[in-house]
Design goal:
This protein is globular. The protein has 10 helices and 10 strands. By secondary structure, it is of the alpha+beta class. The strands form 2 sheets. A 7-stranded mixed sheet has the order 4-5-6-7-8-10-9, with helices on both faces. A 3-stranded antiparallel sheet has the order 2-1-3, with helices on both faces. The chain has 2 domains: 85 residues, GIY-YIG endonuclease; 184 residues, Aminopeptidase, CATH 3.40.630.30. Helix content is 35%, strand content 26%.
């Protein structure tokens, strides 16, 4: 669309071919059972498979009889495809117990997550992660990838009112981020925020999102916010389940409100009350002390 047309018409709709597909992932994993034993398997969807093991619905007989909802991820390795994952799974299952334990120990060390507040200098890494979802998913309704400069300004703006938290691995890889910004700008909305969380595609389902969100919610409560809202694409069942598990309640649905990658999309509204009192609120504390932040981020 040229400049003249853009002054007359709105943006062109995002067609199906604008979606940038990625090869279907395949994972080999080990689960730690409460008795200390390890169970190995493979999957195309790590988050969904972990949920199946913990719920008992579609999980393995072994995990059903060895703690089920108490099993935890002890090792995860991304493979090129299903064939490679099956071969790797067979190889790992043949390993002696001590070698499996060594794999789990190294994975735990490499993937130890540290939480910290972002600074504008983190813009490049955060922007790269967010743009992956712009190009590949409908988690965001944005068509055009953001720039580093835009994200530098975004981080600085968020930090004026609320936390912007990063999750980093032991070797400094960004594994996810969570932040909150004002729900609306007018003064009467000063006690409401909208929350956001994104995880690196390679670590979805490994508990990073939950850890980020719980820390974000704890800091928002300390600041004196009353309500946290989340906007979730209607067909994003994983995110809807995630918010429900963290105590959010669905309050509304905007049907057919967004159009991206050749499809109409619903938008679900979720709310989490951070305070239940109805008295006159105190002004929100826009800045917490370093000690208060460290207490939560640990």
């Amino acid at each position: 669309m040229n400049t003249e047309e853009s002054e007359i018409y709105g943006p062109k709709p995002s067609p199906a071919e604008a979606w940038e597909p990625t090869p279907e992932p395949a994972w080999v994993y080990l689960l730690r059972c409460p008795d200390g034993s390890l169970y190995g398997g493979w999957t195309n969807d790590l988050a969904r498979r972990l949920k199946a093991h913990r719920s008992g619905k579609g999980g393995a007989k072994y995990t059903k009889s060895h703690g089920r909802d108490a099993v935890r991820l002890a090792y995860a390795e991304k493979c090129a495809d299903k064939s490679a994952a099956l071969k790797r799974e067979a190889a790992i299952k043949k390993l002696p117990k001590d070698e499996k334990e060594a794999l789990a120990a190294q994975w735990a060390a490499d993937n130890k997550i540290t939480l910290r507040l972002a600074t504008p200098d983190d813009a490049a890494a955060v922007c790269e992660m967010y743009n992956w979802y712009v190009r590949h998913g409908v988690q965001t309704f944005q068509y055009t990838p953001s720039t580093v400069e835009e994200y530098r300004a975004n981080i600085a703006h968020v930090l004026e009112n609320a936390p912007f938290i990063l999750a980093e691995s032991a070797d400094g890889r960004l594994q996810g981020y969570a932040c909150a910004h004002l729900w609306h700008e007018r003064e009467a909305y000063s006690w409401d925020v909208e929350t956001t969380v994104y995880c690196a595609p390679d670590c979805v389902g490994q508990g990073v999102g939950g850890r980020l969100y719980r820390a974000l919610i704890a800091l928002l409560k300390k600041q004196g916010y009353y309500n946290a809202f989340a906007l979730v694409t209607g067909n994003n069942k994983q995110s809807n389940d995630f918010h429900k598990a963290l105590g959010f309640k669905k309050m509304a649905v905007e049907k057919r409100t967004g159009y991206k990658f050749g499809q109409w999309l619903d938008l679900d509204y979720w709310i989490l009350p951070l305070r239940n009192d109805t008295d006159e609120p105190q002004p929100v504390r826009k800045k917490l002390t370093e000690e208060e932040i460290a207490e939560v981020l640990g």
